[in-house]
Design brief:
Elements: H1 15-35, E1 40-44, E2 47-50, H2 60-72, H3 75-90, H4 102-119, H5 126-140, E3 143-144, E4 149-150, E5 164-166, H6 173-182, H7 187-202, E6 213-216, E7 223-227, H8 239-256, H9 259-274, H10 300-320, H11 324-346, E8 360-363, E9 368-372, H12 375-388
Antiparallel strand pairs: 1-2, 3-4, 5-6, 6-7, 8-9
Helix pairs in contact: 1-12, 2-3, 2-4, 2-12, 3-4, 4-5, 4-6, 6-7, 8-9, 8-10, 9-10, 10-11, 10-12, 11-12
The structure holds glycine.
């Protein structure tokens, strides 16, 4: 059992979070035996579909195992997480299959493993650290200096993606910050900051909503305009996109200390929370046509990501003091409201369904994992619970 003292950020009774944590931790332990060193993505008929190690979601399962391991020290969880990490490391040879989401993939596997080994007093994990540094180099290599953005994807699907950047990439930037710090090379930080500033300028709207994809001329770098991507329309507000923006800007604040990222995260947070239905879990897009909206699926993954992002933003606002302290309290209360609803109405604690959170939506327009469980929804739900119980350290 890892020895630590948890410091809660709230005086309110969070017994419900302890209870939910115990149930989630127990389910992760049982899933570790049935899923093993594989890469669950979304559920179909109650069972997670396992995918390849080069999929963008491949880091979330080992990440979840590390979240549980650092609380209970169960060696079985560590072995499975390490076996996942070895498979992820092999994908570093398959250059054409990788893209900007190496940040998601390697922050929650290789970086998490290295950090856990550091925290256990073993001086880190040299192999895992090297894998994460290689991944960071691949990510840095996707930077377009003319347009000051990180290119999202290769030209797959026969479509030219050379000038495409996407909102999710804010969550990949911590890998660059971490790598630059580890090897004392400021170039990584400069790339991360330039990309985040382009997102601030081109993705974030005055009302706090964001687009999913923004296109630049890859040759001149000129901003062209937004695309719908996984959202309902180019000018709509894909719910998970908003949650990536909220958490991603909060993490940019964590790594740089810059107020403009906290302000951006808070603007997105105010928008996100103001648009929530009564049970605090959004429909898959915030700007769906009113007619028929209530029969549209929810996205519990967006709720879980936003809740964990709100808790990070609360940390940032508290750390910098001043007027932000009141905003921090609001962020925390909002996060608690969302997680409490997820625990009470969306969580599946038993084994008849492998996922932890029901009613998540992967890619509505393509009919991919609609109203199912998603491994990233589960990850951020567990991460938010850990934070509510006082765990401040992140893998990001
Ligand atoms: N990063 C892709 C998604 O959120 O579905």
């Amino acid at each position: 059992m890892t020895e630590h003292k948890l410091q809660r950020g709230s005086e309110r009774d969070l017994g419900w979070a302890d209870e939910a944590w115990s149930r989630a931790e127990a389910k992760i332990g049982r899933n570790a035996r049935t899923i093993g060193a594989a890469f669950p993505n979304g559920t179909i008929n109650g069972r997670y579909v396992r995918g390849p190690a080069h999929d963008w979601v491949a880091g979330f399962w080992p990440g979840m195992l590390w979240l549980a391991y650092r609380e209970n020290g169960d060696e079985e969880l560590r072995c499975v997480a390490e076996a996942c990490e070895r498979q992820l490391a092999e994908t570093l040879q398959t250059y054409d299959l990788l893209h900007h989401d190496v940040g998601f993939m390697f922050s929650l596997s290789s970086v998490a493993q290295h950090r856990q080994a550091e925290a256990s007093g073993r001086g880190g994990d040299a192999d895992a650290k090297r894998h994460a540094l290689i991944a960071a180099n691949l990510l840095a290599g996707r930077y377009n200096p003319q347009g000051e953005f990180i290119r999202a994807w290769p030209n797959w699907d026969g479509e030219d993606h050379a000038g495409w950047a996407i909102i999710d990439c804010l969550m990949n930037l911590p890998l660059l910050h971490w790598a630059g710090r580890e090897i004392e090379d400021t170039r990584y930080k400069h790339i991360a900051i330039r990309h985040a500033d382009s997102v601030l300028r081109d993705f974030l709207r005055p009302d706090g909503s964001v687009c999913h994809i923004f296109r630049y001329d890859p040759e001149s770098g000129t901003p062209i305009g937004s695309l719908a991507g996984q959202g309902y329309a180019a000018d709509s507000a894909w719910a998970r996109g908003a949650s990536w923006a909220l958490y991603g800007f909060a993490l940019s604040s964590r790594w740089t200390g810059e107020a403009r990222y906290r302000e951006a995260a808070l603007r997105v947070a105010r928008f996100f929370v103001s648009q929530l239905p009564e049970d605090a879990v959004p429909y898959w897009d915030f700007f769906l046509p009113e007619a028929g909206k209530e029969s549209m699926p929810r996205d519990s993954s967006a709720a879980a990501i936003a809740a964990s992002g709100l808790l990070e933003l609360a940390e940032q606002l508290t750390a910098f003091g001043g007027a932000g302290v009141e905003d921090a309290a609001w962020c925390r209360t909002s996060a608690e409201r969302i997680v409490q609803s997820l625990c009470g109405r969306y969580a599946e604690w038993g084994d008849e369904h492998e996922g932890l959170l029901r009613h998540a939506t992967g890619y509505y327009s393509r009919g991919v994992y609609v109203d199912e469980s998603l491994i990233y929804g589960d990850y951020f739900f567990v991460e938010a619970l850990a934070k509510l119980r006082g765990r401040k350290e992140l893998f990001w």
